[in-house]
Amino acid sequence: MSSAQKTAQACMTIEQFVAQSTGRWRSMRSGHSLAFQQFEEVLSEVTIEKISREDSVVKELLESSLVNQYNLDTISSPFKMEWCAESDWEPDDPSEVSSGSCIIVPFAKDIFSGTLIRSVGYAEAEAAISEYKFSNDGTFTLTTNYEQSIAEEKIWFVSENVRCRSSVLRTSAGSGVLQTSFASEVRRINA
Amino acid sequence: MSSAQKTAQACMTIEQFVAQSTGRWRSMRSGHSLAFQQFEEVLSEVTIEKISREDSVVKELLESSLVNQYNLDTISSPFKMEWCAESDWEPDDPSEVSSGSCIIVPFAKDIFSGTLIRSVGYAEAEAAISEYKFSNDGTFTLTTNYEQSIAEEKIWFVSENVRCRSSVLRTSAGSGVLQTSFASEVRRINA
């Protein structure tokens, strides 16, 4: 077993997770609409970079969010994520955003879990507050309650340069699962 | 949170996992070929049924495998899995098998982990011995060493009637990831 695989298996902290996520990723993403049995395929590039907790965009996000209840001393590894679709095979779907960026600020509760504030939510275009936790196989799970839906995302590294990301979107009202997605992300070493 | 969601979050045993998996599932599966950035999409039906440990197919499988080192008293919930593709959008790919079945016999080591013998492997068409374990979020992870490759599959329930299944296939020689896949499976209640 290579050291990269050992790293992927080990327990993670949010700092290690953000450090390992930093870089440019080539993403293949499949969406599954369960009710209609429709597939969606998107190729995109995702860039993740750490930002300083003193950065003005962090302060703006915290000021615009209801974060009075969080201890600013527990901010861990804030980062910026940008994405740009290279191909979107369903161009008529207005819910598909082909590029964008968001600021993400984690607040660690303990080494396994915490809260994460995003300037743009995953399922709805508003600032979102999520709960995160790491399972004992190193998988990062993020749960977000939106107004109409609940999203659960999982991210795990299969090697130092390959990570997988799944999401499940369900209705807030019940346990009905609306759609799922899965992305395979390969780090761009050069270019 | 509904009771189904609570169940999905809880730690699992192999007996509970097989019991919850039993039934007919409508599967949407996406494959990602990372080197060629190609997508594959398959709709299929998967049927899972428990079988008796006294069933002749179980005995045949154990006799044909090198299972001397396993204690037959630790056999837990053997089952049969059948699949049938309803549509295969890459009919020219000879590696795609449109239907088949296999017998799966788990040997529990402890409540979290064990060994699993399959009459047909996932990545190569030969009997396969896998190691399984459950993580503390209830995800079932199966690792199989084939002659040329290593497959890691994860299966988790997002509700009582929806489960997700991901796989990563890497070369035995290194940590190169060849392909990934993701399936969303919805239980067929009637019909």
Kindly describe this structure:
Two copies of one chain form a homodimer. Chain A has 191 residues and is mainly beta. Chain A has three helices and ten strands. A ten-stranded antiparallel beta barrel of chain A has the order 1-2-3-4-5-6-7-8-9-10. The longest helix of chain A has 9 residues, at 56-64. The first copy, chain A, is globular, with a radius of gyration of 16 Å. The two termini of chain A are 29 Å apart. The model of chain A is unreliable at 1-9 (pLDDT under 50). Chain A binds chain B through residues 2, 4-5, 26, 28, 30, 32, 34, 37, 39, 41, 43, 133, 135-137, 139, 141, 152, 158-160, 162, 164, 166, 168, 170, 174-175, 177, 180, 182, 184, 186, and chain B through 2, 4-5, 26, 28, 30, 32, 34, 37, 39, 41, 43, 133, 135-137, 139, 141, 152, 158-160, 162, 164, 166, 168, 170, 174-175, 177, 180, 182, 184, 186.
Topology of this structure?
The structure is a homodimer of 191-residue chains.
Chain A (H helix, E strand, L loop, with lengths): L2 H7 L4 H8 L1 E11 L4 E13 L5 H9 L14 E10 L10 E10 L4 E6 L9 E7 L5 E6 L3 E11 L2 E10 L5 E11 L4
Antiparallel strand pairs in A: 1-2, 1-10, 2-3, 3-4, 4-5, 5-6, 6-7, 7-8, 8-9, 9-10
Low-confidence stretches of chain A: 1-9
Global geometry of chain A:
globular
**Beta-strand level of the residues of chain A, as a percent range?**
over 45%
Average of the residue pLDDT scores of chain A: 86
Q: How far is the first residue's CA from the last residue's CA of chain A?
A: 29 Å
Q: SSE order of chain A in H/E notation?
A: HHEEHEEEEEEEE
Biggest pleated-sheet summary of chain A: 10 strands, antiparallel, barrel
* Secondary-structure content class of chain A: mainly beta
Which oligomerization state do the chains in this entry correspond to?
homodimer
Helix content, binned percent of chain A: 10-25%
- The tally of strands of chain A reads 10
* Radius of gyration of chain A, in angstroms, nearest whole number: 16 Å
What is the spatial order of strands in the main beta sheet of chain A? 1-2-3-4-5-6-7-8-9-10
Largest interface summary = A-B, 34 and 34 residues
User: What is the overall number of helices of chain A?
Assistant: 3
